[in-house]
Protein: BMERB domain-containing protein
Amino acid sequence: VQADDYIPEHEIQMEMEEIELRLDELERRGVELEHKLRRMEDEADEDSLLVDWFKLIQEKHALVRRESELVYTTKQQDLEQRQADVEYELRCLLNKPEKDWLDEDKERERVLMQELVTLIEQRNAIVKCLDEDKQREEEEDKLIAAMIQKKDFHADPQKKKKGKLKPMKVLKLLSPKDAKQKSPKDKKEKGEGAKR
Structure:
């Protein structure tokens, strides 16, 4: 049994590799921008670079989110497949007349029912994680939008002075270690730990 939005494993792998390449490129661009910002003295140029910096952060967040979604999708699809297998085996067992059941059949039914419950719990946990991630991502988007608004990049120069952000403070706030949150690999390992 496959969901309507099933994505073949090789397609997920290809997209993950593409995301990694794009993240590497963004990392290089981010380092270049950071060096330019540290040396910047002209406020007008600084504003322009900060706009680029925020756009880069937003793009990086979008890629990290997609990578995380793909990890969750892979795990969800694996769980769906295993659940379908367990349900099939359980149906076959339950189709057997009860008078013909052996002790092994009863034990197998118990084991399959427990595995089914575990699979459903794991799938529910993935949905919960996706919801939590979505909420956190919305908060991050609001934070970045607020920083851009505070900076007021596109307003007149007089307004700019009021909401001045210090570039180094922004760089610390949005440093790569914070921008990537938990890596999807960490989430996958955490999820596998919960499986056991």
About this structure: The chain has one domain: 9-189. The chain is about 85% helix and 0% strand.
